[in-house]
Design a protein that fits this description.
Distance between the termini: 11 Å
CATH class of the largest domain: Alpha Beta
CATH topology of the largest domain: Diaminopimelate Epimerase, Chain A, domain 1
Helix content: 10-25%
Strand content: 35-45%
Shape: globular
Largest sheet: 17 strands, mixed
Number of strands: 17
Structural class: alpha+beta
Number of helices: 4
CATH superfamily of the largest domain: Diaminopimelate Epimerase, Chain A, domain 1
């Protein structure tokens, strides 16, 4: 296997391996085992996921995202913000861009303070259950509100929901949310990682929308969010039974870069 140059980025503690292959291809969808090994925190680089940046006609680039288990994932919000910062590092974009991901086109902006603002797809509807909300913000999310987030065993309770009869086959991410005086606090169990992550971009966005539905107010909404790995912000506008103009905002920071070579087998 050839040497693979990579960068490691994190967004509010949600960390990713980023590989540029807009000029030379290193990995493909068939390399799930290699990707799993690279994401392993003891035998590899260590990350919640791996992202390939590829050339794409009509866009600044294409984002191909893989979960830590090596499988291709649905849209990753924090990963989307990190690949935008990575593309800027590579000199491929300026302060804004338009890229293609698994769920369609996205636009993004880089702020002078280092935050990246990523527009997510519209949400057509939200399922409201007796003690939960379920919606798709690029990835499926189950949202449950709690009184004391610190008292929740996120892994145990999240895994029980993710592997329940309804979600066992396709999986879902599970978010536990506590209302704060100014915004919300969120902890997320992520499918594909099969563990708690320090932040989940599409998850905190889904949680912010669910929090709005508990106490609706007119006009565009801005929700400050405290994840275990840092601060984020979601902005959106209600539209009928759904939501539009949805933006996930937060930091995207380079941690280190290097070159990795893995032997086959």
């Amino acid at each position: 296997m050839p040497n693979i140059p990579f960068s490691k980025y994190q967004g509010a503690g949600n960390d990713f391996i980023l590989i540029a292959q807009h000029q030379k291809r290193f990995l493909s969808r068939q390399d799930g085992e290699v990707i799993r090994r690279l994401c392993h925190r003891r035998f590899g680089i260590g990350a919640d996921g791996l992202i390939l940046l590829q050339a794409c006609e009509g866009y600044d680039f294409e984002m191909l995202y893989f979960n830590a288990d090596g499988g291709e994932g649905s849209m990753c919000g924090n990963g989307g913000r990190c690949i935008v910062a990575f593309a800027r590092q590579l000199g491929l974009i300026g302060d804004s861009c338009r890229f293609l991901a698994v769920d369609g086109p996205h636009e993004a902006r880089l702020r002078p303070d280092g935050w990246v603002e990523l527009r997510l797809g519209d949400v057509a509807s939200v399922e409201k259950g007796p003690a939960y909300y379920f919606l798709n913000t690029g990835s499926p999310h189950y949202v449950s509100f709690v009184d004391d987030l610190d008292a929740v065993d996120v892994c145990r309770e999240g895994r029980a929901i993710r592997y329940s009869e309804r979600f066992r086959r396709e999986g879902t991410n599970v978010n536990f949310v506590q209302a704060l005086n100014d915004g919300i606090a969120v902890a997320t169990y992520e499918r594909g990682v099969e563990d708690e992550t320090l932040a989940c971009g599409t998850g905190v966005t889904a949680s912010a929308i669910a929090a709005y539905l508990r106490a609706p107010s007119p006009g565009p909404q801005t929700v400050p969010i405290r994840a275990k790995g840092g601060l984020l912000e979601a902005r959106f506008e209600p539209k009928g039974d759904g939501f539009t103009n949805i933006w996930l905002c937060g930091p995207a920071e380079k941690v280190f870069e290097g070159v990795v070579s893995l032997k086959a087998g």
